[in-house]
Design goal:
It is built from three helices and 17 strands. It is mainly β. The model is unreliable at 1-22 (pLDDT under 50).
Length: 246
């Protein structure tokens, strides 16, 4: 009987380890983009882009350290916005108070849960961060995260991420790596679970030509957006989804 009990305990432990080992992040993306536009006559507009991250076992997700976004049938002209505010400037100052309002290109929010990845989340340790995106020069954007309100975040986060825009045959792309100090606080994992962002409709001039910070250039059927999420475990997870009409 005693041997049987030991066997049962061993089997439970084995299956618990297996469940933890096979648990993985799940992702979803959504957004809203302008319709219309061609390469010859692009349409200027703003857009929203959101995503969620979860663990398929209901635990704290693996922390994502790098992101690579692509929006089909689009392009970005950072030269449309003349004012700038870089991530280096924000981080040197400790906040975004020195950034010109005219450099702001987007806003949003970030929800992160804090604990140990792969383990149950206690439901209380979280960060609700304000997101401000600033034009940071040619093909760059500074993503500033503000969690200084300690009623909304257990760690006083105030830091900007240096992100890069790119334009290619598949559309505009945005990529960045999250610094370690934003992925880990107080010896714990900071796992982002939800991001909501809105980029403004902004116009400028290139010579005599009117250009937009964000433009749609046409696509076939439905517009596709894709993201490659790279976790701290080294796993790359690509997600592609149809988001609205062209």
């Amino acid at each position: 009987m005693r041997k049987t009990r030991f066997l049962v305990v061993a089997l439970i432990a084995m299956f618990s380890i297996a469940a933890t080992a096979f648990a993985a992040n799940t992702y979803d993306i959504s957004g809203k983009f302008p319709t219309g536009g061609t390469k010859a006559k692009p349409k200027i507009g703003g857009f929203t882009f959101n995503y969620t991250i979860a663990d398929d076992a209901g635990n704290l997700p693996v922390v994502v350290k790098a992101y690579k976004f692509q929006i089909g049938g689009s392009r970005v002209n950072t030269s449309a916005v003349k004012k700038t505010c870089t991530a280096a400037k924000i981080n040197a100052a400790g906040d975004n108070t020195g950034c010109p309002t005219a450099a702001l290109v987007g806003t949003g929010s970030v929800e992160a849960h804090i604990g140990t990845s792969g383990q149950p989340w206690d439901g209380t340790t979280q960060c609700l961060l304000t997101l401000s995106a600033y034009n940071a020069g040619p093909n760059k954007v500074a993503l500033y995260l503000d969690g200084r309100d300690t009623t909304k975040c257990i760690a006083p986060i105030s830091q900007a991420i240096d992100a890069k825009w790119s334009n290619g045959p598949s559309g505009a792309g945005l990529s960045f790596t999250v610094p370690d100090e934003l992925r880990h606080q107080l010896g714990l994992d900071v796992a982002v679970v939800s991001v909501k962002s809105t980029f403004k409709k902004l116009t400028g001039k290139k010579g005599k030509k009117k250009i937009g910070y964000f433009e749609t250039t046409g696509c076939k059927g439905k517009r596709k957006a894709s993201v490659i999420f790279t976790g701290e475990d080294g796993v790359n997870t690509p997600i592609t989804k149809q988001i609205g009409s062209c």
